[in-house]
Structures are given as structure tokens and as C-alpha cells.
Structures
1.
Amino acid sequence: MKNITIVGTGHVGLVTGVTLAEIGHQVVCYDINENDIALMKAGISPFYEPELTDLLKKNLNKGQLFFTGDPKLALVDAEIIYIAVGTPTAENGSVDLSYIKEAAKTIAENITKQEVIVVTKSTVPVGTNKLIQQVIVTNLTNEVNVNIVSNPEFLREGSAIYDTFSADRIVIGSDCEKAASIIEEIHRPFGITIFITDLLSAEMIKYSSNAFLATKISFINEIANLCEKVGANIEEVAHGMGLDFRIGTQFLKAGIGFGGSCFPKDTRGLIQQATEAGQSLEILEAVIKVNKQQKYSLMNKAKQRFGNLKDKKIAILGLAFKPNTNDVRESIAIDIASELTMQGALVTAYDPLALEEAKQILGEKIQYALSIEEAITNTDMVFIATDWDEFKDFPLEKYEMLMKHPIIFDGKNSYSLDEISEYNIEYYSVGRPFLN
Ligand code: NAD
């Protein structure tokens, strides 16, 4: 059992803290957001994540988990410190390391134990862990021996707890063998394959993994667009491709492209790193370009169908960047909603969880509905932008009953063509034949 402190208890940090407490460690979670700290102290997660609240409450009650906004209290007894602060894109396109540097400084000023290991969970450009060590060493107020470990995070929002206990691998990178083996011990109870490597390679593994997954998405979306032109069905194609184990079935789902808190910023971040290193990443540049075009593919279909979207009443189903989360960071649905309003459309959106978060970005530009029924009633067309189960389970006859003339632009291929063909619905999806 180790005294562990998490610095930055957002989506990654809180899940890390709660799950490390669950496997028996004593965990202190520290964040600069006092409002969120107050919520977490009361057993409330500031964001939605399945299974998180139960584990949070359970470990708070057991006394394994503690929350504070006081850095001194958080760090005075810490032996192992995980950094999980944000690393957004800066205005100049590079990775904004200001939160990382601030966290490193706070750690340096408050640690007191003789030996401390600082573990970076945040996604950071190659070389950043060395910078973290430098910032800590230059700002130390006590005599502490600090070792650095990179432990990039691979969880997916919406299944973060499941992913933490069932990940494919845990990556531990360090130039200090002893520190790496201590962190390996901490993670061993998860029962997951642990890959130990050097610091720089661990940092690169995270970026290149996300870049590869993004590549799969843009690849399948381009093939989907071609399928539409030549009459093939992307779902048949992806299934047939995926049966080859060298290709695999995962991440071959065509749609409206990738959004969210990681893929867009991490693909940009890797390109920026390559540019600084004097290399171009041409495949990744193309991945991002294809993704930008794919975002508006549904809207282009709607424009082709209607000529012009001015004053058209449009329902958008889904605002979160993916199902089972209320996160709208770089959500494609938000961009679509915004663009539709620029075209003069009258947009009403519904999302099971992310309405409040979306309102903070879109404000009064669109209307918000509290149910699918309310959103689609008397609209000219429906856009499906997030693959929530609630949309997949929605009875199709209701589109017939509630819309003027049922027209769906489905960016998530939510319904099977066989199902749709039983109804009087004009149906446009991605990479599959159009149904009328
Ligand atoms: P987040 O915005 O949800 O959380 C970051 C937290 O850090 C916030 O609560 C913020 O208040 C806090 N913070 C900022 N500066 C601080 C400081 N100096 N001291 C203490 N707390 C501070 O971000 P996130 O989604 O959890 O992402 C964190 C990192 O993990 C990023 O680098 C991200 O790329 C990476 N990551 C995220 C995911 C994901 O699905 N969200 C998955 C894998 C990796």
C-alpha cells in the first residue's frame, strides 16, 4: 500500500484515483477547481462516467480516498504522485504545457518525503517528462530525490472504469529501473499486461496509438464515401475486412469522423512535434484533412437533397462527442449544429446527458429539447450525430408519426437498412445505399 496523490482530478485523474483506491492504495486527489473538489468530497462526480459514482462513494466511505484543494495537505505525505492535468492545444497549435508546468511547480514546493516518484498520466509531447523533472528539481523547497515515470493513459470516456480494469496493456516508461518497478508493483493488482520501456518511447507510444486509431477512422470513412459512389455497403466491407486478423474489426465503423477530447488534439500535437523535429507526417496530415471533410458530409447530403437549408427545421440527435458521456469537447455534433445555424437552419437538439454542456458552447443559437420526440416533432429532417443506445432503440414509426415527412441523415449508421426499409422513411447514412 502506497501513499498516492493525484494532481488534476478530471476525467483521467478521478478515474485513476478511484481505481487505485479500489485496489487498496491510500489516495489523495488534489485539484485547483474548488467547486469540483467540494462535489467529489460529497461523493459526486463533476462529470458523468458509468460506474464511477459507486466506486467513488465506496472508497470515500472506506477512507481510502480523500479530496482536497490544499496542495500542502495533498503532497506532504505523498510517495507517488500522478499528474493528470489537461494538455490542450495552445493558440499557436502546439501542446499547451502550462498546466503541466504549474503542476510540477506545485509538486516541487510541497513534497517532503525523501524519495518521491512522479508519474505522468497526461498525454505529453516526447521529452516533456524530462522537462517535468527539470521544473521539479529547480523548484524544490525540501531535499527530495525525485524520479520520473511516464504512464500514459488509454482509457476511453464512457467506459473508463471498465477500461481501467480490462485494458489491453499498461505502459510504464522510465529511465530509472527502480522507479519503474515500483510503479509496476502498484499496477499489478489490475492483472493487465505491463510493458516497461524508456521514458521517451512511452510518451511516443501514446501519441502514435491515438494517431493510428484516428488513421483507421479516416481510412474507413474514405472507403465509405467510395462505397456510396460505387454502390457497395461499408458495413459489409468493414466486416469482411475485419475477419482478417491482421486488420481486426475494431475502429472500422464509418461515420462523421472523430471528435472528442483526445484524437483531434493529439493528432495535431503529433504533427507539431514532427514539425519541430524537422519531419513531416504526411499520412497523419491526410487523416486530419479527411476528418475535417467528413464532419460536414451529412450536411452536404442534406444540401444536395434540399438545395438550401435556410429556415429548414432540423433536429440533431446527440451532442456529446460519444455515447455514455456528457463531454462535448471538440464534438462533431456541436460543429454540425453551429454550421447548420450559419446556413440559416432552425436547429433543435436533444442529448440524454450533454444538453447543459452544449448550451455553454452553442448558447441561444439553437433550441434544446428534453426528449427525442420533442426534438423531431414537425421537423423537416433529423441528423443523428452520436450513437446513443436511446436513439438506436427509438421506435422508427415515431419518425413517421411526428415528422412532416420523415427524412433522416444518420451519421452513425444507427439503424439497419432492413429495419428502415419497413418504414416510409427517406434515409441517408454513411457508406450505405440510400433508402427511400
Ligand atoms: P480534464 O480537463 O477533465 O481534467 C484536468 C484537471 O486538471 C481539471 O480538473 C483541472 O482543474 C485540473 N488542473 C489543471 N491544472 C492543475 C494544477 N496545476 N493542479 C491541480 N489540478 C489542475 O482533462 P482529462 O480529460 O482528464 O485529460 C487529462 C490528460 O489525460 C490530458 O493530457 C489528456 O490528453 C489525457 N487523456 C485523456 C483521456 C480522456 O479520455 N479524457 C484519455 C487518455 C488520456
2.
Amino acid sequence: MGKVIAIANQKGGVGKTTTSVNLGACLAYIGKKVLLVDIDPQGNATSGIGIEKAEVEQCIYDVLVDDEAAKSVIKPTSVENLYALPATIQLAGAEIELVPTISREVRLKRALEEVKDLYDYIIIDCPPSLGLLTINALTASDSVLIPVQCEYYALEGLSQLLNTVRLVQKHLNQELKIEGVLLTMLDARTNLGIQVIEEVKKYFQDKVYKTIIPRNVRLSEAPSHGVPIINYDSRSRGAEVYLDLAKEVVSNG
Ligand code: ADP
Ligand code: MG
């Protein structure tokens, strides 16, 4: 049975999509079968993995809103062992269209249950909000991985996120765990980064991954080529650290 991990933080630009794509690809690289689920209407994970959004006929919208089977929407990617459940801008309507529907919070969970045993890991790239799409992701997941950018106000907003996690645990998914907190975009040349690491470790303690993702320009270039870092530049620091993260995720069980 696959493990489902939501990559969530309602702040934009903290590295959710970069982590979803590259953790997913690195897990695939070390031999795991991985499904990357894009539930952000921006569809950055979809294009980042090389799927042309204009050519996507059915996407996660059809699964969530029209009860389409996940199996018929999942696509292979150019990366061995890595599959994708794509998102297009059509998904932007789902947040509102789902509101009056029955069991609106558990739609993704039900859809993924049908395919869960086909994969070792299912990684869900969440949108930058705590709306119904993120609630669907948290409800469908075994755990949540929280990327935190090494910046001023790193912890800002995290209490809201943790509060949402607690509400989901209470009402929708008792089994939901915190998978880990990932420090991203560290600029090792500044003291600020070090301060943020200490602050986040004080707050989350052993939940913080040993692997810290530095700023690496290759990581920001890869998406425009539609490939994960491990395929774009396997010798870059970015590839190394996401491979370390994948191993850490596996060893944490
Ligand atoms: P989110 O999904 O949380 O909005 P992204 O993963 O899209 O965040 O990252 C925001 C921007 O920062 C993107 O342009 C991405 O390419 C870039 N980026 C993410 N992580 C790194 C990193 N470690 N080093 C350099 N650029 C990064
Ligand atoms: Mg994103």
C-alpha cells in the first residue's frame, strides 16, 4: 500500500512544487514507484514534469468534480517509475464548484484509494491556500511534509497551517501525521539562514529534516526544461540534496 504525502504550506514560493517534483523524481530514481498528484490550479508540477498543459484532456478537476476514475487520468512521465495526475487551470473552478457537493472533503481520498496499492509513494503538490483543495489533500494523506523557506518570518502562518492539520485530524483524517519540516532555499552566506534554522528547530525539534535545501540556480532552471533536477543536472548540489531527502523520507518509514 502506497504512502500518501501532502506537500503543504499556504505561503506561496516556499518550495512546495520544487519539492514535490524533485522528491517524487528522486524517490523514483532510487527505485520506488511514484505518483505525483498536482492539485494546484497553476499546474506548475504538471509542466515541471514535462506535461504540456494545453494537451491535457482530462485532469484532476475531472476526478474531483466529475467522479472520473484517477486511473484513466494518470499519465506516465519521461522519468522512469514516475507517473502524474495533472492539473490545469480548469481546477481553479473546483474550489467553488465543490462547495455544495456531498462529501466534498473526501473526494481526493476516495479517488486515490482506487490506485493507492499501485504505487510506493503518492506525493500531492498543494496550492498556496488552506481551502478545499488543500483540505482534500490533507484528508487523503498519511502525512504532511511542510517546506519552510529560510527567510524572515519563516514561521509566520505556520500556526494556521498546524491548526488546519489539527482540524483535519479531528474531523476528517485521524491518522494524519506530520511527515517532516523541510528547510528550503538556504543562503549559506547569510547569518539569517542560520538563525532561521535554529528557530525552526526549536519549534519543530526532531521533525526537521537533516537534509536542508540550499538555494541552487539549477533547481530554478530545471522546470523550464520540463524535467526534474536529477535529469537536468544530476551532478548539481540541488540533485544531491533532493536525493538525500528522498533517502531520509524512505528511512523514516
Ligand atoms: P511554491 O510551490 O511553494 O509556490 P516553488 O517550488 O514554485 O514554490 O518555488 C518558488 C520559486 O523558487 C520557483 O521559481 C522555484 O524555481 C524557485 N526555487 C525553489 N526552490 C529553490 C532552490 N532551492 N533554489 C533556487 N530556487 C528555488
Ligand atoms: Mg507551487
3.
Amino acid sequence: MSNLSLLILPGDGIGPEVMTQVERVIDWLGDQRGLKFDVSRDLVGGAAYDEHGVPLADETMAKAQEVDAVLLGAVGGPAYDNLDFSVKPERGLLRLRKEMDLFSNLRPAQCFDALSDFSSLKKEVISGLDIMIVRELTSGVYFGEPRGIQDDNEGGRVGVNTQRYTTNEIRRVARSAFELARRRSNKVCSMEKANVMESGILWREEVSWVHENEYPDVELSHMYADNGAMQLVRAPKQFDVIVTDNLFGDILSDCAAMLTGSLGMLPSASLGAPMENGRPKALYEPVHGSAPDITGQGKANPIACILSLAMALRYSFDQGEEAARIEKAVEKVLADGVRTGDLMGPDGGTPVSTSGMGDAILDALSESA
Ligand code: NAI
Ligand code: MG
């Protein structure tokens, strides 16, 4: 098998701290499972600004376009808060997403049994939960024109944003959701507001078109997004893959993620069109930010970033078995009671450090091999 090329961008704050633990897992996969990665490392965010005066150098951008997958830690932090908007750390991440055209954002919400007390929902409602929200990431109301704030000619002002979706934009993200469903329990629920929005009507029609013409084997249902929000909290296990637009996806994915506990546990993937080798352009990153309040203290939970690597193994490298091995190792250490500070319940205990969590996961991996 040819080597798997991976660009690692640790970024700022706790990004480098959690990425160190991910790199230990990558080394383990190479040594013990024969998975050889071509790993390169580069700077993004404030770290890139400090070195190059921009949050993402052109060479780094070019490299990101070539590799099979990019793995990013986090960007930003108080040291960069006063920078000009054009060179803010977040702009580095936005440039990656935009130039790689990463239109499909995958946010899993998975309940690890050992953490089910963490949820604000009843244990039986979330125990065993494993759903995936697919959010359209490059279009919709965050990008539509016209936009702006203008005088309304009556002495007041008017703020305008435009929800706009094309056939192609809807079909490609729908395909991405159906593909995912085939690897899971073969079920997609599409969410929009076709009752009050024309873009929602088109969304429903085009998702149905892709379904009928290309994925008739997958079970498709439609739901209004407001009802979807209710159902996610009432009975989340009725879903498998949910596909929705940028705005609804932003809100619904945050809502679904929090069903299951801590920010330190949440991975994500952003996928684009297939490259020549058939693999999609891909960026994997934890959902959390750079956590300046705990940076440099060894307190960061590396699990979100390690689970992001697992997603890369599954969706970019066709290594679903190794991805599952990592997820099982995480499950085991949690079941054994190993906790970073963010996972401590009210009754306390002694948290492990970032590297302590890495040690435990590597031990669990070694036991599994
Ligand atoms: P944050 O996600 O960095 O932190 C929120 C809270 O969760 C903090 O109390 C933090 O300590 C905790 N937390 C986050 N990740 C954790 C982990 N792995 N283990 C343990 N605790 C964890 O969000 P916040 O504070 O709003 O933003 C901080 C900086 O990060 C800002 O500069 C923001 O712009 C940036 N940011 C970057 C993102 C990215 O790189 N994708 C996403 C969100 C924020
Ligand atoms: Mg959000």
C-alpha cells in the first residue's frame, strides 16, 4: 500500500499539546499496525503569523491541497485578538476551508457509556447514541448576496443576509450524506424549512432527486429543522445521518454535540470533492478552540483530536478497522475511570494530565493489538 500523506497543523494554544498525543498514536499505528504515513508539519493561525506575518503561508496552502488529509489542532488566542481582521488566526482556517472547497462538515455525536452521567438528558435517552450531522459548509445565508447594513430611507437601518442554494450545492452535500449512510445504518434525515423558505423547497426537491436517482437503497426522510431540534433533544436515537444547510447545521450540530458531554471529546471532519486518487479533500480537527485558560498546564483533553485522527483513518484512508480500534481504546480508558479535568464529575477524583491520557490510550491500544 502506498504511504498515506498527512499534513499536521498543530496551531495555537492547546493545539500543539493535544497534537503531541495524536502523533504518539500515529507512531504506534506505524510501528504496530504497519500503517505508514508521510507526515509533514507546518504552521497555522497565530503560530504562522508569528513566523510569516500571515495566518497561513502560500506554501502551506499548496501542501494542504496535495496531501490526502490535513489534521489541525486549534487556532487563536488572546495574543492575537488585536490583529487586523485580515490576518487573524481564524483566517488561516477559513482560507483552508475555502480554497479546499470543503463543503461537507461531519460532526458526530456519540455517547460513550462511561460519560452518560455527563449529559443533561436522561441516561436511557442518550445511552448508545451514535449519530452524524452533515452540515453544508460553504454556501447558504453566511455567504449569500446581497448582504449588509443599509439605511432604510425612513430614518432607520436594515440588516440583510440572503439564503441562497444552487442545485449543485445541495446535490453534492446530499451525496456526501448518502455515502456516509451506506457505511452506517443506511438512514438519512434531511432538515430544512420547506414550509416557509423557497431555498428549503429546493433543498427538499434536490435531496429527493439524488435519493431517487443515485441512492434508492438508502432510507430518506425529511423533517422541518425546528421539529428536528425538538426531536434531537426528545429522542435523538431515532436518527443516524442528518443532512442540513449551513445555518441550521451550525445550530443543530452544536445542540447534538452537547447531548453527549464535553467539548474535549468532539471530533469533526470537513470534506470536499474527490481528488484524482478518489479520496476526498479533507480537513480533520477537534471542535474545540485553543483554550487559552488552560494552555501550557497539561490539562487539555487530547481525545477530540485523537478521535479526529480516527475519522481521518475512516473517511480518507479506508482504515475503518483501525479507526474503530482507536475509538474502542478511548471507550476503554473512560470505562476504567481515566479522566482529564474537563471530564471530572461533581464528586471529583484525580484528573490525569494530557500526556497521562495519551499514555492510557496507548496502553489500551497495545492491549488491543
Ligand atoms: P475553546 O473551545 O477554546 O474553550 C472553551 C472552554 O472549553 C474553555 O474553558 C476551555 O478550557 C475548554 N476546553 C476546550 N477544549 C478543551 C480540551 N481539549 N480539554 C479540556 N478543556 C477544553 O473556546 P473559546 O474559549 O471560546 O475560544 C478560545 C480561542 O479559540 C479563541 O481565540 C477562539 O477564537 C478560538 N477558537 C478556535 C477554534 C478553532 O480553531 N477551530 C474554534 C473555537 C474557538
Ligand atoms: Mg457553531
